């Protein structure tokens, strides 16, 4: 069902239901980095079939996951974040790592070799506006990372020895994006809802 249909559905009392979206804030990767990582992810997928490897077009640095929220609320948070003094970020991808449960890996990621503190400061701004808007605060500290894969089994999977990631040049990130995540049988598709300038 499309978002327009959802917005036009009548509620129990005859009024329109607030349109809800699955949304998050993220910093996109340059296209040249996505292209370089596409081949790397394909090689990892052959080695680690117990993981769902992220399509290159979905690669981003998550700043704050909002969950299922009203579209108007997500846009209001974006508006307030845009009104703050947002600085551009000098970023560089670093070494791979994983979030584990015991010996099993649940998420495989690349960390940051440069810009982790600056991205963390941006995350603090977004987090403050989310809490101000009435969302629950994050219970875990922010950890800057680029998600490469998630384990297919719920409890995680044994992570094989992976090839080293490509050595990618630093880049200047000049935008923060409010994304909508569309869930489908073939995976998630991320649609930019609003682009916020980092200057």
Task: Give a description of the structure.
It is a single chain. The protein has a 5-stranded antiparallel β-sheet, with helices on both faces. It has a 4-stranded antiparallel β-sheet with strand order 3-1-8-9. 26% of the residues lie in helices and 39% in strands. It has 199 residues and is an alpha+beta fold. The N terminus is likely disordered.
Number of helices: 4
Distance between the termini: 37 Å
Structural class: alpha+beta
Strand content: 35-45%
Total number of domains? 1
Helix content class: 25-40%
CATH H level, superfamily name: Cyclic phosphodiesterase
State the major sheet: 5 strands, antiparallel
Any idea of the CATH class? Alpha Beta
Using the 3D structure, state the CATH architecture: Alpha-Beta Complex
Low-confidence stretches: 1-11
Cα gyration radius (Å): 18 Å
Give the number of DSSP strands.
9
Strand order in the sheet with the most strands? 2-6-5-4-7
